[in-house]
Amino acid sequence: MSSVVKKTEGAGAPEAGASRQATAERIPAAQRRELILDAASGVFAERGYAGSTTDRVAKAAGISQPYVVRMFGTKETLFLEALDRAHGKLLGRFREVIAAYDAGELTEQLQQLDPAVGSGRPEQLKQLMAIAYADLVEDRGILMMLMQAFVSGHEPAIGARAREGFLSIYRLVRDEAGLSPEAARDFLAQGMLMNTLIGIRLPDLYEQDPTADELLECTLRSKLPIVLKASKAQLRAG
Amino acid sequence: MSSVVKKTEGAGAPEAGASRQATAERIPAAQRRELILDAASGVFAERGYAGSTTDRVAKAAGISQPYVVRMFGTKETLFLEALDRAHGKLLGRFREVIAAYDAGELTEQLQQLDPAVGSGRPEQLKQLMAIAYADLVEDRGILMMLMQAFVSGHEPAIGARAREGFLSIYRLVRDEAGLSPEAARDFLAQGMLMNTLIGIRLPDLYEQDPTADELLECTLRSKLPIVLKASKAQLRAG
DNA sequence: GGTTGTTGTAATCGAATGATTACTTAAATC
DNA sequence: GATTTAAGTAATCATTCGATTACAACAACC
Predict the structure, then answer these.
(1) From residue A83, how far is each of A149, A155, A165, A203, B41 by CA, in Å?
(2) Count of domains observed in chain B
(3) Residue A189 and residue B193: Cβ atoms within 8 Å?
(4) End-to-end Cα distance, chain B
(5) Is residue B45 one of the residues assigned to a domain?
(6) A112 located within any domain
(7) Three-class SS of residue A20?
(8) Nearest CA to the C1' of D16 belongs to which residue?
(9) Contact by Cβ (8 Å): B175, B194
(10) pLDDT tens, A131-150?
C-alpha cells in the first residue's frame, strides 16, 4: 500500500564538496537543543523576536526548520528559553565575580581599576561587574538578546519574563553586591547605554567619526578593545 | 466593455451606527500624511519595525492599507519618516529648554530642582532636559520609537539613521548644552535606563512589586507621576 | 534479524503581509 | 456642466512563515 520511494539522492557522489550535508549528523536531542539555543540566541539578538524566523535559526543550527519547531513547540517558547539562558548567564557571571571578590581572588584585577574608585566593597564590585558585563559582548548575543526582550513589552509572555528578569538583575546588584539603590540605578543605566551603543553598532564607526570615538571611549574605557574586537568578528560573520 | 458595478452598499441606511465609516473623510494629502505618521509612531513604537504591519497602521489612522503604502512607497520609508519625526521632536524639545533657560524664562522651574544640583549652566540644563525627556513619554511613542530603532541596527537603512540620530543627540547635549563628555554620557545613560523601564512596562507593576517601586522612584524621581499617568492611559488604550 | 524508539527531513498547508492594479467618488477647474 | 485632478478603496497577487504531516534512516534492544 505504501508508496515505496527510496531516497537514493545521487548514486554517484553523495557528498561532493557541499559544506552542508543533506541530513545533519545524528546527535542526542539534549545536545541538539543546546546548539539550537546557541543559534537562536544569535538570530534573535540580531533581529528581534518578530524579525526572526524559525527557518533562519534552523539554518544557523545546521538542521531543518521542522526540527526546530518540533523541539520547542513554538517560536515563542524558543525565544523564551533563549532569553532565560541569556538571563541566567548574566546572573551567573555577576555571581562569579562577587564570589571571586569575596574569596580574595581578584587582587591583580583590583589593581588595574581606576584609582579614583573607592575602596569599599560595593564600589569595587560595581567596577568589576561592569568589566564582566563588557566581556559578555563577546559571547555573541547575550546582551542584545536581553535588549530585544526589553523592547518587546507588548508581547504578553515575553514582556512578563523581561520585567521579572530585569528586576532580578536589579535585586542581585542591590542585595548581593550591596549597592545602594542609586548606585544600582547608575550601574544599570551605564549597562543600558552600552547595550544601546552596541545595538546601533556604533563600534562600526570607530575611527570614522570623531563623535562616535569620543562617546565610545568615554563609555567603555578599558573595555573598548574587547568590544571593538567582538564587533569586528561580528562584521566578518555577517 | 467595463463591468458596471455600482457601489450601492445598503440602499437603506448607509451609515447605521458603525463608528468607522466605510470610506474615510476626504482631507488634503498633507494632513493625511501627518495622521498616518502619528498612527505609525504609535504602532512602530509598540511593536517595532518587523512586528508592525502596514494594515495595523492603516487601521489606527482610520484609512485603508493600500493608501498607506501608496503614500509612503514602502513600510521602510514610513518607518524612517516616523523615526525622523521622533528624532526631530526630541531635538526640538531639548533646544526649546536650552533657549528658554538662556532667556531666563525658567526661574520658577529652577527653584523646584533638587538643591544638590550645582548652579552651573550645564548642571542645571542637564536636570531641566531630563525633566523634558520624561515629559516626552506622554507624547505617545516618541521615546519608544527611538528605542525600537536602536535595536534595529541590522537593518541597513534604519541602522544608519539610528546611528546618526543618536550621535546628533549626543552632540546637542555636549555642544549646545555644554556638558562634558562624561556628563553627557551619564545623561544619555539615564535616558536609556528610562527607555528600558518604559519598554518593559515596569510602571504597570507600580504598587504591586516593592522592587519595581524602588527602582521606578529612584530613577524617575519627580517625573514618576507623569510617567505613571501616561502608562495608565496607554493601558486603557490597549 | 526483526522490532522499536530516536533523530531527522521533505512536502505542504493555511494564514498573514507588503505591494499592485483597477476602480470609485468627491472636489476643483474651465 | 463637462473635464480633470485628487483622495480613497476593493480585490487580489506573490511571498513568507509557523506549523503539521508523513515519511526516512539510523541505532538499540531482544
Answers:
(1) 8, 14, 9, 24, 27
(2) 1
(3) yes
(4) 48
(5) no
(6) yes
(7) coil
(8) A53
(9) no
(10) 999 999 888 799 999 999 99
